[in-house]
Structures
1.
Amino acid sequence: MLPFLKVLVRNLRQGPSTDPFPFAPTYTPARFRGRAELDENQCILCGICRHVCAAGAIQFRAAEDGSGMEFRVWHNSCTYCGLCAHYCPTKAIRMTNDWHLSHKGEDMYSFAETKFVKLGSCAECGATIQPRPAAIVEKLGARYPERFMLCPKCKRETLANHAASRKVIRVEEAR
Amino acid sequence: MLNKFINKIAPRSPWLYRLNAGSCNGCDVELATVALIPRYDVERLGCKYCGSPRHADIVLISGPLTSRVRDKVLRVYDEIPHPKVTLACGACPISGGVYRDSYTVNSPIDQYIPIDVVVPGCPPRPHAIIEGVALALEIWRKRLEEGTCSRS
Ligand code: SF4
Ligand code: SF4
Ligand code: SF4
């Protein structure tokens, strides 16, 4: 039989195959990689995301008063590869499935995800260190939570004291 | 009077023109997909691709403007009549995307060509391009009413 009749009947039965967008909402897969989003309460400012970003979309800018860092993902440079989300140790940065990103030309350079990440302070001496949110301490610093909150200097001191005290004990035992 | 009348009926039929400024073809495939595949069909918005810059109303620019094509792109761009609306497709025209910092690319493209609409992505989703074209259409209609050109 005429093959086009088969196609015609099938098309009539299935209805239009055109996606209704932009006149109606469309389907977005849950794992679609769209705009990157940062949860500033999870970020420990390790800088891995900036290091792996081939497009150079991620920038850190220190605040003038030294209280934190401004974290910026410029969506117009991002290639939506998702490497930052993959390598982030705390899953602070993640790819949303939001792709409604078209915007006017005048917003070209300001079209970015800007978040302010506060720096932490050392539990011992109060020196400025990377942020240490509680959720992250549980995850990354579970073995020595109190040492995780220290600045490198205090951490070295505690380690040295710890080692020294153990040595003293051993010396005493040997006598 | 006649001008006003023409400007009133003209918005029904904007012509799209694709200008490849050294793109990797990713964006171009998506731009072609937007019109040629019935699933996305940008022609529902009343626009159609054309082959000549002299007929174009909305220019879709892809690619980071490589040194090799720069002069040719600028020449073609100047042939497009006013009021033209430019849509930058993908990360390349704005920041250079994955080619950023290369000595052969001249992005950001707005050093040479004013950009009206940006659709980020590498490449953008066809739906996102349609959304961008809808935004460009709005700008184009406004420009026709006001009689402004993209350089003014
Ligand atoms: S977002 Fe993640 S990878 Fe980037 S600095 Fe913060 S914790 Fe590190
Ligand atoms: S998704 Fe890729 S390009 Fe975008 S910010 Fe993350 S690492 Fe950079
Ligand atoms: S934005 Fe990505 S897909 Fe588009 S031309 Fe540039 S590199 Fe290719």
2.
Amino acid sequence: MDHTSDPNALRYVIDPQRLDLVEEFRKSPLGVHSAELRKMLAKMRWGKAQGRLVLIVLEAGKAWRLSRIPERRGDPMPFVDDRIFTSLSEAEWHVFKIRWQAMTGQTLPPEYQGDL
Amino acid sequence: MIYKTNEYLGYPDRISVPAGETVKFQLSSRRDAVKVEVLRLRCGDVDVNGPGFKYDLMDSAIDGVHACLDQEIRPGSCAVIEHGGTLVPSGNGWSFGCYIYPTHIADNGRGIMSNWCETTGQGYALELDSEGRPVLRLGSTCLTLDVKVRERVWSFISATLDLAKKTARLSLIVPADGTRPAAAHAKSFALPDVLPLDSGLDFLIAAHHLDPANRYTAHFDGKIEAPRIVSSSLEAEALRVLDCQPRTGAAAPGLVAFWDFGDGITTLDIKDLSANCLHGRLHQLPRRGVTGFFWSGAVHDFRLAPREYAAIHFHSDDIYDCQWQTTFTLDVPADWRTGVYALRLTPAGDEPEPDCESYVTFFVTPGKQTKRADLVVVLSVATYLAYANSALRLYQVHFETLMEHVLWLPLDDVYMQEHPQIGQSTYDSHVDGSGRAYSSWLRPVLSMRPRGYWFNMINDTHILDWLEEKGIAYDVITDVELDREGARALRPYRAMMTPTHAEYYSFNMMNGIMDYQNGGGRHISMGGNAFYWRCGFHPAAPAALEVRRGMAGTRTWESEPGEVHLAGTGEPGALWRHSGFAPQKLVGTGFSAMINDTCTYYVRTPDSEDPRAAFIFEGTGRHERFGDFGFRYGGAVGSEIDRLDYDLGTPRHALLIATSEGLGAGALPTPEEFRTMVDGLDGTQNALVRADMVFFETGNGGAVFASGSITFGMSLGHNNYDNNISTITLNVVKRFLDPEPFVLPALT
């Protein structure tokens, strides 16, 4: 196992109090981010592929739907929900919220729960 | 519109076909008919924001509706031995066993030595069960040793039958290794009176039969070494240390078979050392040239110590050849232009289905009658194969971090997840975690099609589109011809062009280009990360590219210690840089960095004012930004970039005519470029993280131009092909096609 294929290699622990980073991400999901936010995003994005949220391209550059990498190769890859994203920013924000909840165990304040 | 791109799948029997010759297509679909058209692609990129999908529809004899079979892909490698009944146990004793090194214990049972058939329940087998316990199958009888083998630990597994006494003994010996002491386990069993030990089928190593129709299943993941069979009752340890190498003329009593996998490593044949000559053949290209139980670490080249490499690494997901029936044959007319061609496959019914469209790509090269152009584009089939069906987006730990966004998976990726039997690329790993060393074109390659993922081949068609737009006559060949014919493939041409990503190069390809350049040929290297990996087409499986990842380089897996040499050719398969032939020596530039964030542009250097380079910049300004634009990537400096380095072989007289500017923190050097990990390595700080544009003359009137960036070609079409990247490329092409010899400067 090397530094980039070890799913547990990242040491960073997400601090659920850091709503300032949530705010920064919400303002610019695809933008250039601060060093601290980059660390948090790296932690969210790192890890074993199985179970990872991904966007299925329905139409290149136009439409995406959320799915998850299954546990086993060969298993079907169903959509997670019915939502069709037409904005990558909106999709990034949606995935960010799901991961925040999963990785901190805490619910975001109401003002951060909606769409962008 | 959401396109269904995999309703029809197929592959050609030959990836490139000279005009006037024939190519067979193997198609498969759940639909029983297919409508076929043949396209010659100008630009294969369906993205409407680029040049657009451009092609000519060709009239051909295969146009129209064809019947189509639903054909199966059965991955999984094994060895197959025809034995005429010799390997059916008989007499009072029958002992058989081998060394095993399992790499993936899961799912179902795994065959090790077997003629057993799942459908008929006949035959015998030595296997592992789904927990890794040794199993002896005798017809419908299943005898299990209640101890588990461990993954990535060598052990010796064996069984002995005494058909007279109706007993069997199953054994596992784990030899000592490091601090671990030796261990031995065995169990005896009573046998039923009647045992159907003769399935009437071939003997298999690393699988058993699914049915009598030569379909195999229960493929073993891991290494197997030295399977042997003796017609006597031997203790397991005696069988393990058996002197299996008969001396000439010396009796080897009771030896029925002994397969020495260290013999013929570069072939697909396995050799039996016994007097019975029960030689066999490998199926679906397992990996040879791998370290065996006796590997000492003293040598890393199997050619020097084949006895230390007497193992084969089998995989349940090895795939070389789908072996589909041919659907139809195309006689390519002698007057067809060379180029990138594709079958367009659509439903045959009366109801139009505009959302259903599949492709099979192939390349038409010059035929015997073809009048050659002065320019040839050498398409990078080795690179297309290395990336064929890449599933990095599906299974790599770090890939989302690398991309810095939630991964977008085209529907082809979803297909690959749901149909892994199609096989992945040499960037991916087998189910046992070992890297895939082989990729072949005798299977559907989803990533080498219009509407497929654009990296490599689709990007290359942007360059063909630009040549068409500028009215430059050219031929297309592929690096497969370069591999097979060497420099002869280039000799008819005054100038050659390599496209966006000529990354994978064989010995013949590298030497062929060097010979061509030194013989007065002109080479326009349009891409980046070029001439990087030393790879080879397997001589015994010529549709397969073989890659070993060495111990450095930008790579998603690493070769196991001692396993860097290509099994097919014996060459050290790592970076060309580590064979003393860095790309800088060939074209002046070599891999520097990956760009994970913003693409940028070039600026001219003082060298660019040298009169030798004046022709390149005609019609442009001295202080322009070159390529501060581009389709998809946004800049001519991007994706993967190359730099000049005299120490690595850039000719001393080479001119550094332009270099990149403005690279960011996402420009990160390739690992072989640094020796110690320190701050100061990224593009904002490190001057060696850059793309260089280089020009130099070669002997006999030749010359080389290298752009140093993968995204260079995607800037050509910007502003309706009117831009400074297009201008300088046209200047280079025109001068390189001019017969006036280039003159080597006085060399000091």
